[in-house]
Amino acid sequence: MSKIKIKSLFSIIAAKLTLFLSKKFLKGGSNFPGKVALKFDNSILKTITKNYKVIMITGTNGKTTTTSMIYNILKEAGLDVITNNTGANMLPGITSCFIDNYKFGNSKERYAVIEVDEANLKFITKHLNPWSITITNLFRDQLDRYGEVYTTLSKIMEGVTLVPETKLILNGDESLLGELKLPNPTTYFGFGLSPTNEKVIDINSDAKFCKFCKTNYEYNFVSYNHLGDFYCPSCGYKRPELKYTLTNVLDITSENSLVEFNNKEFNVTQSGVYNIYNALCAYAITKELGIDDKVIYNSLNKQESSFGRQEVINIEGKEVKIILVKNPAGYNQAIDTLCLSKDTLSVAFLLNDNYADGRDVSWIWDVNFEKLAGLDINDVFISGERMYDMAIRLKTAGISVEKFKIDGEFSNLTENIKSSTGNKIYILATYTAMINYRKYLHSKGYIKKLW
């Protein structure tokens, strides 16, 4: 047995032991076992991903939900498939996922649907050649870590250029993803029409200028933020030809969307235009894999929310929906979803500024909270490490301060939810606030499955 094989063997065994102990005693361990494996063999990913057809999902918004949709469709099709459903999307977490599912001597072809952090793609493609890479979209997010959207694209391209034969399945409505001049076979999905009939992008939208000549884009229609049927009136750069499209919107509610992809009807069980994009992306990828429309329909029709992504929790008879919000584009989509509700509601705003959220919270001033001022809101709960910043922003947006209940303790937030006037409460939370509050709810028995 060669030195490399021995090193890999020790790496796998040590990581599997760590994984077992982490699950048994710590009820977690999605990253640490991968770190252990990489200490023994920093190229272990190459060994443990053999025989896998790997589908990678990256981009700013929608990675977790899209990954879940694709995984469930492939399961519905009867395929042997794994995924990193805990959201651990950096090199150690992805390594842990493959280690957890590694079987000695198994040579059968399997599928892996893997969510990948934008800045970590290059560390993954260094060791394996995925079947496909998908980029969902590019928005300003964690500016202290990623910088502007052009920097995020550059980080992703560092990973893509390492695998020139990998199929790219890209959002054609994202102006940054057209004419990439790469050797990779490339397919685009996008909207064939706008659910909102907008033609002018908001002043705070990202990527407003042509990436070639810096002229302001014009649009045949806008879907949201800077996504849509764009074109440059100066140099002629425009949206690429789409293979998979949203061809009709039959109904959009605060609970679901009934739509047509390539003239076939599908029910998207999570609300919001952004989830139509997620479902269209999943449709495009699984059609490229040859999955039948009926299988896709059946799977999407029973798709459940991933943790913190419109997840519904019952707290003493109150219907609590947690929505992850992490940047202006996603937050505005969450607010648009609330605006679809015909019922009175209560809203909790949880704002943190930890590393995973982004230290700079000034981005909340680019969110259109003013839309909420016209809604019938019973209670406004505000929590998190930067709760007073959020309170000032909401006051400035015209929301009545008499409805504010500001408290940094999860126990008090939960009691406020229990005693709220209405029975439906939306929680809009940044990443670590969502994770920590879910842990609290899990400790109190309101959530059975933490991950």
UniProtKB/TrEMBL annotation:
Q: What is its EC number?
A: 6.3.5.13
Matches recorded under SUPFAM superfamilies? MurD-like peptide ligases, catalytic domain
Query: Which Gene Ontology molecular function entries are recorded, alphabetically?
Result: ATP binding; carbon-nitrogen ligase activity on lipid II; tetrahydrofolylpolyglutamate synthase activity; zinc ion binding
Which keywords does the record carry? ATP-binding, Cell shape, Cell wall biogenesis/degradation, Ligase, Metal-binding, Nucleotide-binding, Peptidoglycan synthesis, Zinc
What single Pfam family name could you report for this chain, choosing any that match?
Answer: Mur_ligase_M
Q: Which residues form the active site?
A: 360
The biological processes this protein is annotated with in GO are: cell wall organization; peptidoglycan biosynthetic process; regulation of cell shape
ATP-binding is among the record's keywords = yes
Q: Which reaction does it catalyse?
A: beta-D-GlcNAc-(1->4)-Mur2Ac(oyl-L-Ala-gamma-D-O-P-Glu-L-Lys-D-Ala-D-Ala)-di-trans,octa-cis-undecaprenyl diphosphate + NH4(+) = beta-D-GlcNAc-(1->4)-Mur2Ac(oyl-L-Ala-D-isoglutaminyl-L-Lys-D-Ala-D-Ala)-di-trans,octa-cis-undecaprenyl diphosphate + phosphate + H(+); beta-D-GlcNAc-(1->4)-Mur2Ac(oyl-L-Ala-gamma-D-Glu-L-Lys-D-Ala-D-Ala)-di-trans,octa-cis-undecaprenyl diphosphate + ATP = beta-D-GlcNAc-(1->4)-Mur2Ac(oyl-L-Ala-gamma-D-O-P-Glu-L-Lys-D-Ala-D-Ala)-di-trans,octa-cis-undecaprenyl diphosphate + ADP; beta-D-GlcNAc-(1->4)-Mur2Ac(oyl-L-Ala-gamma-D-Glu-L-Lys-D-Ala-D-Ala)-di-trans,octa-cis-undecaprenyl diphosphate + L-glutamine + ATP + H2O = beta-D-GlcNAc-(1->4)-Mur2Ac(oyl-L-Ala-D-isoglutaminyl-L-Lys-D-Ala-D-Ala)-di-trans,octa-cis-undecaprenyl diphosphate + L-glutamate + ADP + phosphate + H(+)
Taxonomically, the superkingdom here is: Bacteria
Q: Which positions are annotated as binding Zn(2+)? A: 210, 213, 232, 235
Q: What class of enzyme is it?
A: ligase
Mur ligase central domain mapped to chain residues: 57-230
The UniProt entry, under HAMAP family, shows: Lipid_II_synth_MurT (MF_02214)
- Report the protein's function: The lipid II isoglutaminyl synthase complex catalyzes the formation of alpha-D-isoglutamine in the cell wall lipid II stem peptide. The MurT subunit catalyzes the ATP-dependent amidation of D-glutamate residue of lipid II, converting it to an isoglutamine residue.
Identify its protein family. Belongs to the MurCDEF family. MurT subfamily.
Q: How does it assemble?
A: Forms a heterodimer with GatD.
Which protein, by its recorded name, is this? Answer: Lipid II isoglutaminyl synthase (glutamine-hydrolyzing) subunit MurT
